[in-house]
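Continuing from the previous page of notes. For each protein in this section, the sequence appears first, followed by its structure tokens. Read the first protein now.
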Amino acid sequence: MLVIALCLNGSTPAPGQTRNSAPADFAALAAGAEAARDADRAGEAIALYRKAVALRPGWGEGWWSLAMLEYEGKAFRPAAEAFQKAAGLNPKNGLAWAMLGLSEFELGQDASALQHIQEGEGLGLPDDPQLQHVVFYHEGVLLRRAGMFKEALRRLHALCFAGVHNPDLLQALGMVALWRAERGPADERDAEVVARVGRAECLAGQKKFDEARQEYAAAAHDYPRYPNLHYAYGWFLLAAQDMPAGYAELEQEIKNNPRNVMARLQIAATRYKVDSAAGLPYAEEAVKLDPQLVLGHYVLGLLLLDTDNYLRAIPELETVQKARPRFAKVYLALGAAYARAGREEDAARARGNFQRFQQGADKEPDLMPSPEQ
């Protein structure tokens, strides 16, 4: 359990509340709450803090202490409510928002947990490596559950590089590499394979690529038909710039699972601007297998454009633009396709949108599935 002995400063009274309301009662309650907290009488301290903040709702330090006591007692719902109060009273305190996110994580409120954790990181966290590792780990798990695998891998790799090594991290890394968004492994055998993939990825995060490759090769040998294992191994090999071996693993994944879309898109995306014509069949097959996947239309559109099939590229890229209207890079590609088709006004409009969203704070992440270490 994470314990953080920090407080919030700069709290102000709530509207209509003054610091002189029931001063004697409040002072006695606050003193009693702090004494009970310092003596590790958590239940008594919680009761007294609740009475104190009821008298003075603008007491930020009281809300913070109450929230931490609830969190340490695994009472995550009241903890979240108290952290929300504390963060509202001091909205520039990154730790308060991050702790709110951690509480929401425990409550299964993934979307708001990720939002608040990232808001806390943006505002700044204390220079405490243990705390930062806890926050970054949970962010990685939430990114994975949201299907944001590249971002999750980047965050979790950084923890391995920083020297963090524990079973939870290995499991999270294994699930990311296997492109799985569900809560966790299905059974003990599944957990063993996930952990082995996680060990390989943690080694990759530490830049120990030879050891990571050996770990991956052993896992692929022992579990040759395990879903997405060859995909994960292939992704790793492509990131290590061993393209032939990476493509071979991805082809094996397709052989094992003929309906695997992401293995095809990985091959197609990494051939873009290298041998786009060779990548085209894979992208076309991916779009046929999953017409709703925006990434497939994007990769196909780029490959068509790079092979001068701009008339076919335009509807693919327009599909992406309609689904992800704030994704800047699709406008860059559309601008080039429209220009080649002689649609100058549309090209100018697309280039303008590219500039607008490229510079904007709310641009979407890259949709390309390129592997990264």
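Done with the first. The second protein uses the same format. Note its length before scrolling.
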Amino acid sequence: MHLFINSLAASSGGGLTYIRNLIPHLAARHDLRVSVALEPGLREEFRDFTNIAFVELQVSPPRRFWYEQLALPGLIRDCRADVLLSTGNFALWNSPVPQILLSRNSLYTSADFYRDLRSRREFGAWLDTRLRAFMAKRSIHWADATVAPSEAFAAELQRWTGRRIQAIHHGFDHEAFTRNGRPLAAEVEAKLRSAEDSLKLLFVSHYNYYRNCETLIRSLPFLRDGLTGRSVKLLLTCKLAAGQNPGAYRPEHAANLVKELGIGDMVVELGTIPYSQLHQLYRRADVYVTAAYAETFAHPLVEAMDSGLPVVASDLPVHREICGEAALYFPRFSAQELAARIVEIVSSTGLAARLSASGAARSAAFSWRKHADELLLLAGSLVAKN
């Protein structure tokens, strides 16, 4: 079987994590041919996989959708692929081969996100998201099969489209995730050393609205009051400054909130950490926290659990599906309840250890090899029907 993967949209976040982890497992399959369309900047990451054909295409994000619709069908025919995997939420409406769509953007169905954009008066972004949601919904109808990374998000997509959606969990590979032992950058290391005597809360993400960073920030004064005499640091893998994060999200509101609350000493902006070094950061933290109000899988939760961190997460169906009993949950916009869960972990004898043990067992349930096997089984069934 010859699988063609359209990963032109994989530039950051979950999309990039996905392709980085999937390709090595596909490359290990000797009964499979794989062609991958990707941006030239990513080719160097996969230089060791000589048995995979890479098609390097330089396409700007505003042109990507129409370029894919017009150019990719010819490329797929030319390489004689048997099946297409579209990884970026949008399908080809005229795919020349059976097509699997990976739908993994929860913003298109999130009422919270649309409300958030309106409250920030970002009406252009609101309209753009609505238009993209329309095309994403149409894409699910164009595809021969649609895959979601969790049961909870699959159910949400089914309600939205009326189409059957198959859930195939994204995976995790402990050995690959922890392989890189290169030290963290000196600037990052210095910031971590300065926080060594504090309770270190970690949040891994670029700045964006749906990760709800503001609720994390608002929780810090409650923590300062609830943990009297204990220093608390919130470690962020982003910087709350314009132009310092991918995408068009504006962090100025979060930065101003830090100033208004007088908690500049509690927020540590580490900046972007290379994915291959993230495991070192998890191991330096005490608790992993997320207040996201929209999610499809949440790779950092699995990474945190594998690293032995107790987790405090917003009460979303996806978070409960991924973490189970390895996390404590709070209403997604309640900074006070978030702080209360952290205080509970710090104050309760043995709770952190129980959550950590549950997390280690839970993270072992996710496997990129299993994901690849289930994906290829689906692809094979589509080819057989064609």
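What the second structure shows: The domain at 2-171+367-385 is CATH 3.40.50.2000 (Rossmann fold). The mean pLDDT is 94. We return to this in next week's lecture.
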